[in-house]
């Protein structure tokens, strides 16, 4: 069983270090050591900073890969048009079990991240800086870094800077969830998609990007675009940070120039010589088969051309001794449990998809496969955030990449291999305080008459299927929705709905609703 990754695993570098410069000297670069290693940094004007970002082809390193210059210009234009001060937000909420690159940067080089954020704040005329974190170690390191620079959240400060601590959950890193928490709300997506560049923290235009993106900006501003472009590929210059885990001898974060063969990076981490598959981009990413992984280079464009993804920079090989579908099931169940529970695709779809994969592995045959494909397709594009889309992408990629294993399970009852659990997940029993209520909704089908009042009261948790009867997912009711769930129970005229204690993590097995003719999601848009 693969143990959870530590906050700061081993760090290595291929070629000359940029982001990881000085890591061979000290465990953490305080301000004095940071300046010795990197030197001082002069302010850069707004348009010049955007032009620099264009010249070095800087894209967001949190997963989506959005061009940083476009985001910077959009925030500036919105702020000028509205006559308000923008806000800068550093997203250090790296809560995916397979990702540690941003956590390593904040723990070991917090001032490089702050350099980029302060450059952007100065260029935009921002007077508020928020750094979102979810770990004790990142909170302590960034709080110390702000203190070392004399930055605080006092009203009299020219720049009000603060660390925003949020619960340790997958959806916390979603941009809208971080903005919502910075405004004093729960660290959950708000249920509607609004661009932070238009309306973010406090309703102001907000520049939000992850820690590595700001660190890359600081490096480019120091060494200049010509020198920055001397490293890596012409169309994707510079270096990237990758987190290597899964079936490797040495889990690590590694800085590599773009263009390095992926097989070389895997070899450095002690991956199997012939991996069965390599998950690229993390748990919202895509699988590469053994042949594609051997041919791939570290590049967003090159990985996508082979069906992979750079995503959040996680690379996870698995060896031939484990069942890939069983590994995917463990991840799918965890992803379903990380839902914010605020919309149908997350609340109903993700547990149903994980349950569908479980049914397939349990001998459900072609019927289970068809049900899994149907619910995965229904989830796409319908969520309040990108979590359902990313989970659906992971499951679809799994079915495509391991077609032989899929056929063995569907047609022959199994592939003959056990699930070793090589993909890292949080330690069993970890719960984030205050998010799930510990209760779930249950329907007594001997009493239900299909009145549909429950779906009117709490549509986030209950949907009506094509037959007019409710579909309820087997997952805990989130605390913010518990009051309405209780109201739905009281309003049921047939007394068919109840709240009951949810099973523990070890007992839970999300599954497709077992009543014939009922589906986990209807076919309409939410």
UniProtKB/TrEMBL annotation:
Obligatory cofactor(s): FMN; [4Fe-4S] cluster
Region Disordered: start-end pairs: 180-200, 500-526
UniProt keywords, alphabetically: 4Fe-4S, Flavoprotein, FMN, Iron, Iron-sulfur, Metal-binding
A Pfam family it matches: NADH_4Fe-4S
Segments forming domain NADH-ubiquinone oxidoreductase 51kDa subunit iron-sulphur binding: 325-369
Domain of life where this protein originates: Bacteria
PANTHER family, per the entry: NADH DEHYDROGENASE [UBIQUINONE] FLAVOPROTEIN 1, MITOCHONDRIAL, NADH-UBIQUINONE OXIDOREDUCTASE FLAVOPROTEIN 1 NDUFV1
Family: Belongs to the complex I 51 kDa subunit family.
Full protein name: NADH-ubiquinone oxidoreductase-F iron-sulfur binding region domain-containing protein
Species name: Streptomyces monticola
């Amino acid at each position: 069983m693969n143990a959870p990754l530590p906050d700061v695993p081993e760090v290595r570098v291929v070629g000359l270090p940029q982001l990881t410069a000085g890591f061979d000297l000290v465990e953490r670069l305080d301000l004095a050591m940071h300046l010795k290693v990197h030197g001082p940094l002069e302010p850069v004007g707004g348009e010049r900073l955007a032009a620099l970002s264009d010249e070095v082809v800087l894209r967001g390193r949190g997963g989506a890969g959005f061009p940083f210059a476009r985001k910077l210009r959009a925030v500036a234009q919105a702020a000028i048009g509205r006559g308000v001060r923008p806000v800068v937000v550093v997203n250090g909420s790296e809560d995916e079990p397979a990702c540690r690159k941003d956590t390593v940067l904040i723990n070991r080089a917090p001032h490089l991240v702050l350099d980029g954020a302060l450059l952007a704040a100065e260029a935009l005329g921002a007077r508020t800086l928020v750094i979102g974190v979810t770990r004790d170690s990142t909170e302590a390191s960034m709080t110390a870094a702000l203190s070392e620079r004399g930055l605080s959240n006092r009203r009299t400060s020219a720049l009000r800077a603060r660390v925003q601590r949020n619960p340790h959950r997958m959806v916390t890193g979603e941009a809208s969830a971080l903005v919502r928490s910075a405004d004093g709300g729960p660290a959950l997506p708000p249920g509607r998609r609004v661009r932070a560049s238009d309306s973010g923290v406090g309703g102001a235009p907000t520049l939000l990007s992850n820690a590595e993106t700001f660190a890359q900006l600081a490096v480019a501003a120091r060494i200049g675009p010509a020198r920055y472009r001397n490293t890596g590929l012409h169309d994707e210059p510079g270096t990237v940070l990758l987190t290597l885990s899964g079936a490797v001898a040495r889990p690590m974060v590694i800085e590599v120039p773009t263009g390095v063969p992926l097989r070389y990076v895997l070899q450095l981490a002690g991956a199997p010589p012939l991996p069965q598959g390599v998950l690229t981009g993390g748990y919202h990413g895509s699988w590469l088969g053994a042949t594609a992984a051997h041919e791939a280079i570290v590049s967003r464009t090159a990985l996508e051309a082979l069906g992979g993804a750079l995503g959040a920079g996680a690379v996870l090989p698995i060896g031939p001794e484990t069942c890939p579908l069983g590994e995917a099931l463990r991840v799918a169940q965890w992803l379903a449990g990380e839902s914010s529970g605020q919309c149908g695709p997350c609340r109903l779809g993700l547990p149903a998809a994980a349950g569908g994969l479980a049914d397939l592995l349990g001998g459900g045959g072609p019927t289970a496969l068809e049900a899994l494909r149907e619910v995965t397709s229904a989830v796409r594009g319908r969520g309040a955030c990108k979590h359902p889309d990313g989970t659906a992408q992971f499951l679809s990629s799994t079915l495509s990449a391991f077609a032989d294993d899929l056929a063995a399970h569907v047609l022959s009852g199994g592939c003959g291999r056990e699930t070793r659990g090589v993909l890292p997940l949080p330690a069993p029993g970890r719960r984030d305080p205050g998010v799930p209520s510990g209760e779930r909704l249950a329907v007594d089908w001997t009493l239900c008459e299909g009145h549909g009042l429950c779906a009117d009261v709490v549509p986030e948790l209950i949907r009506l299927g094509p037959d007019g009867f409710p579909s309820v997912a087997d997952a805990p009711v989130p605390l913010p929705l518990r009051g309405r769930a209780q109201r739905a129970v009281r309003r049921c005229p047939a007394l068919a709905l109840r709240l009951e204690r949810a099973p523990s993590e070890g007992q839970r097995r999300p599954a497709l609703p077992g009543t014939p003719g009922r589906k986990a999601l209807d076919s309409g848009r939410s």
